[in-house]
Specification:
The complex is a heterotrimer. By secondary structure, chain B is mainly alpha-helical. Chain B contains 9 helices and no strands. The chains are: A alpha/beta, B mainly alpha, C mainly alpha. Chains in contact: A-B, A-C, B-C.
Chain lengths: ~325, ~220, ~500
């Protein structure tokens, strides 16, 4: 055992000195980042969140001269990845690319939340938003939202809408629609938007669906589905011909799926500012903006303060919807 | 153990089914139109319970072959290695995890040859560094960590070689000792600021206590 | 004739130097990640996606497609050599492939897997080119009720995978179904059997279960037999299959291809079923079913061909409808959209270069895979003669790193150890892993579709017999059940009489 112990100290000594030096430099915020930065994506690879995170990571790696690494931590509707970041060291070297779903709907619907979104995170900036689209099977006679509401009301308990998962923005868009229009559509949950669209296109039981614009866009353009309206407050630059649900008669109806970057709470303000500045700069490049709009994603940037307020107000809105529609995830 | 293997299997099925029924007792059964989360679990567990009973019964009646003896040494070595890899990876880094897994798993070999095993450790280490550089970086290291890892390997190799001359391997206690030694090397090496992302608060707390109570004083001692 | 000229056009595009290079790159990368368990095509394509932004769309998509079918090829290698199924489709390849390897016929098994995949790939490419439209309508006639009946059929077929006791096989399927329940319930979001562990909230992964039950348990067993110096129980004979092998395997390849092509079109898990279904078919129609599980070459040829055919035809819903049937296809759509191509029916008319180029490149890619893989067999087989005490730590590490890299989750690595223990217990008690895995894979889909079908039918179970396809599948399930159970009952009775 003595040999072992000797070896340990022989190895350890030089590194203790080295790391002591490193620890001193790490304290200065203007040197941030001092080591590779992890951007956690709380969803599996693919999907808008992942693509956006990889896009930003590639840009920040160049502009901040440190490796930005995307790591997927899927699980529990995005709560798992959030939890990891909430408990990480608040030094700006672990960030999370989160969404309206796990930041605002989960707190309103999950019985056991592992994190307190408002207390555990420091918002950096919103990055992009995606409108949801109300799309119907072409066999549905309705050509606009008013006709659609009348059609649903004429067939009580007979209309089903597909969702890509319970308690995400597409599902909640539908529940909010039910409340606002006084309809009684029943949600049918699928694992992801692919199988849901498959059944909607084939007319297998479900007649309508709220889904993120990028995934329904090609189907509406090809005529295999009919788009009725977008859920956002404003028309989308990608499909300006689609009216909003708000202007179609349901005043005040506004839902978007947004994506944004958060750091753990207590991250130094200087680090947040630096990240905010760099992300805004990289996402404002016209080339990037154009590409994102083409796939149905609108780059939307704001300040940390605006972003924080938005998260808080949306949580309140979804709490009310979840209570009325009796949605509770255990 | 002269009990028929069917009896073991049957008992396992029954225990699993009862566990399922017990944990899932409060899952809603629902109606046919809106089945609750508990519908399938309950149906399944009852079926499994019945089948388990049947398998056990067959075992009792038929008196077939008894279960073969278990190779406990090999079982512990392999499962230990995988568990060590899981435990060490996010706390100590990939290099430590690989080394630990190879060394501990290696004790399960029919005729252990320590020189070979250490060479294997090196081979695995270099393979990771050169073939999977992206992976190594992802775990949270850089060139510094690579150098450190290399030295850690050298230290472990020396320790094991000197150690192996006197006492033969294979005893469980020694395996544990080796694991702890390995752990200490790596913890000291990966002090603050070298890309540590702690998995949970509990680990972080344990780490803080360890740091304040043990490592800091030791470091101070050495620097002084 | 239109198709021929279109195909010729496609080949002209796919044979350009740049596209050939990217096809090769994709195929080689795919083979590599297929060999490494855990690092699947989804993660690889996601990582390469930003890189393809700089390419023009055709080579980008050719490369990504190459990764996908290359991975299908590579997956069989570890299954045959060390009994580690890296993905659900190679579970059945383990059953006979690994036994062949132990008998020194790893070369024949690998070669027949590669050749079978190639033949299946060629055939399926033609299908994609010619019959996309009618096959799409077949896929569209499958609703929740049909999928439920298909899953029931698959689960009954799982009994056929077992060689020993039928009752224990059924129990193992139930255990698999039970393991499949762990995680979030799709319909209500309720967490079932997760013990509050967030890593379990999305269910147990396939790879930890498969590597634990098959891979780790096998390592432990091998180590506990001191007489075994290597995996081989007999010396290696021959790298290539013999004429007799070919004669046995060829019809199996054709049947596997046909089955795989059909099932691959179904988005909800058809591709997963194809390998299982092909194996079951072979075992059922074989003159001597007892050879299966002991190194029957058909047991490698049929599932491998089915698997590859299914991988190719699963492009059909993507190309004709623009709907991704699985996560890999979802990434392909992402790649198309980033390049400004709207996937959907108009791809064929608006982007003929892309559509036919991709189809042609699939065929070329398959040929390349054959050319890459056949010479590799020699190297793989030589690997088996490495003393086991040197080989097994490497296999162990492979398992660990593979499982970790799947979700960056150390918890799953720990889970693998638990399943290793379970797998060892199953080995000792004569329970078989393959039915468990099939139950695990199909169970969640079965439950999802059962509940969806009943929800849509307002709770009326008659929906399963009112719809013709569903009824047909249920009748087939009943027949298969009878075919499986009757001989078992008879043999038990004979035994009872003898006593």
């Amino acid at each position: 055992m003595r040999v072992l112990r000797l070896c340990l100290f022989a190895v350890a000594a030089p590194f203790v000195v080295m790391t002591a030096g490193l620890a001193v430099t790490a304290a200065l915020a203007q040197d941030y980042p001092t080591k590779p930065v992890k951007i956690i994506v709380p969803y599996p690879p693919a999907g808008t969140t992942d693509i956006l995170a990889r896009l930003i990571a590639a840009k920040l790696t160049v502009s901040l001269k440190q490796q930005f690494i995307v790591e997927n931590k899927p699980g529990a509707g995005g709560n798992l990845g959030n939890e990891v970041v909430a408990h990480a060291a608040p030094d700006g070297h672990t960030l999370v690319m989160s969404t309206a779903g796990n930041m605002t709907i989960n707190p309103a619907t999950y019985a056991n939340m592992p994190v307190d979104v408002l207390k555990d995170f420091a918002p950096i900036t919103m990055v992009a938003q995606v409108s949801n689209v109300l799309a119907v099977h072409p066999g549905v006679p309705a050509k606009n939202v008013a006709e659609f509401i009348a059609w649903v009301k004429s067939r009580p308990k007979q209309v089903f809408f597909a969702t890509s998962s319970p308690a995400n923005t597409p599902h909640m868009s539908g529940e909010l629609f039910n409340i606002a229009a006084g309809t009684d559509m029943t949600p049918v949950h699928y694992k992801g938007s692919g199988p849901a669209l498959q059944d909607l296109v084939a007319g297998q039981g479900v007649q309508a669906m709220f889904d993120n614009m990028p995934s329904v866009l090609p189907l509406i353009q090809a005529g295999t589905l009919r788009g009725l309206a977008v859920t956002a407050a404003k028309r989308s630059p990608t499909m300006p011909e689609l009216p909003t649900i708000d202007e179609s008669g349901l005043k005040g109806y506004a839902v978007v799926s947004w994506f944004g970057l958060f750091a753990p709470a207590k991250t130094p303000a200087a680090v947040i500012d630096k990240l905010h500045k760099e992300v805004v700069a990289s996402m404002s490049e016209p080339e990037t903006t154009k590409k994102l709009v083409e796939i149905g994603t609108e780059p939307v940037l704001n300040t940390p303060e605006e972003f924080g307020k938005r998260v808080a107000s949306e949580i309140e809105m979804w709490r009310a919807v979840a209570k009325k529609a009796n949605i509770r995830i255990e | 153990m002269n009990v028929d293997k069917d009896i073991w299997a049957g008992l396992f099925f029954m225990v699993l089914a009862m566990l399922g029924l017990w944990i899932g007792a409060d899952y809603a059964f629902g109606t046919p139109a809106r089945m609750g989360a508990g519908f399938l679990p309950k149906v399944l567990c009852w079926a499994l319970l019945g089948l388990g009973a049947l398998v056990t019964l067959i075992g009792v009646v038929k008196r077939g072959e008894p279960m073969e003896a278990w190779a406990w040494g090999e079982l512990v070595a392999i499962l230990d290695a995988v568990l060590l890899f899981a435990a060490a990876l996010e706390v100590l880094g990939l290099e430590a995890a690989i080394l630990g897994a190879v060394l501990i798993g290696g004790t399960g070999a029919p005729s252990p040859n320590h020189f070979e095993r250490v060479c294997l450790g090196f081979a695995a280490f270099f393979l990771t560094l050169f073939l999977l550089p992206g992976f190594a970086v992802k775990i949270g290291g850089g060139s510094i960590q690579m150098v450190i890892g290399l030295l850690a390997v050298a230290a472990c190799a020396a320790a094991i070689l000197s150690h192996a001359r006197r006492v033969p391997f294979g005893v469980l206690a020694e395996r544990v000792l080796l694991g702890v030694g390995l752990g200490i090397v790596c913890i000291i090496v990966f002090v603050d600021g070298l890309g540590l992302t702690m998995k949970s608060v509990i680990v972080t707390d344990a780490w803080n206590v360890l740091k304040d109570a043990v490592i800091r004083p030791v470091i101070r001692l050495i620097i002084r | 004739m239109d198709v021929l000229s279109n195909l010729a056009h496609g080949f002209a595009i796919a044979l350009s130097l740049q596209n050939l290079l990217f096809c090769l790159l994709g195929a080689v990368l795919g083979t590599l990640i297929g060999v490494l368990p855990g690092i699947g095509p989804v993660a690889t394509i996601a990582m390469l996606l930003p890189f393809t932004f700089t390419l023009s769309p055709i080579p980008a998509l050719i490369m990504l497609a190459g990764i996908y079918y290359g991975a299908q090829y590579g997956g069989s290698t570890t299954a045959i050599l060390v009994n580690m199924p890296g993905e659900s489709s190679s579970v059945v390849t383990c059953l006979d492939g690994y036994q062949m390897a132990r008998q020194g016929r790893a070369g024949a098994a690998l070669a027949i897997a590669a050749i079978g995949s190639f033949i299946a790939g060629c055939f399926a490419t033609v299908l994609v080119a010619v019959f996309s439209a009618p096959l799409t309508s077949v896929a569209q006639s499958f609703g929740a009720a049909e999928y439920f009946s298909l899953m029931v059929f698959g689960l009954i077929a799982a009994v056929v995978l077992a060689q020993g006791s039928v009752i224990k096989a059924v129990a193992m399927i139930l255990v698999g179904l039970f393991l499949g329940l762990v995680g979030t319930d799709v319909n209500t979001g309720k967490q079932r059997f997760t013990f509050g562990v967030p890593e379990l909230s999305d269910g147990i992964g396939f790879v930890p279960i498969a590597l634990g039950i098959f891979g780790l348990a096998e390592i432990i067993t091998n180590l506990s037999k001191p007489e075994e110096r290597s995996i081989l129980s007999q010396p290696i004979h021959g790298l290539m299959p013999t004429m007799a092998d070919f004669k046995q395997a060829f019809p199996a390849i054709l049947r596997g291809t046909a089955l795989g092509s059909l099932l691959g079109v179904l988005p909800g898990g058809g591709a997963v079923l194809s390998a299982f279904a092909a194996y079951t078919l072979e075992k059922k129609i074989a003159k001597d079913p007892s050879r299966f599980g002991k190194g029957a070459i058909e047991g490698v040829a049929a599932p491998e061909s089915a698997n590859n055919a299914g991988a190719q035809t699963s492009f059909i819903p993507l190309l004709t409808l623009g709907i991704p049937p699985n996560p890999v296809m979802a990434l392909m759509i992402g790649a198309m959209m980033i390049h400004g191509i709207q996937p959907g029916p108009q791809v064929m008319t608006k982007q003929p270069d892309l559509f036919w180029g991709l189809v042609a490149s699939m065929w070329i890619g398959n040929l390349m895979l054959l050319v890459i893989n056949l010479p590799m067999i020699g190297i793989w087989v030589r690997l088996l003669s490495v003393p086991y005490r040197l080989l097994f730590p490497a296999i162990l590490l492979f398992c660990c790193i593979g499982v970790y890299s799947l979700n960056n989750s150390a918890f799953e690595v720990g889970l693998t150890a638990l399943f290793g223990l379970m797998g060892y217990f199953f080995l000792k008690t004569g329970c078989e892993g393959a039915p468990l895995l099939l139950g695990f894979v199909l169970g969640p889909m079965m439950e999802e579709n059962l509940r969806r079908a009943l929800l849509l039918a307002h709770g009326d179970p008659a929906v399963f017999v009112q719809r013709p396809i569903s009824l047909g599948l249920l009748i087939m399930s009943a027949l298969l059940l009878a075919a499986v159970v009757l001989p078992a009952v008879r043999s038990t009775r004979e035994q009872a009489f003898q006593e």
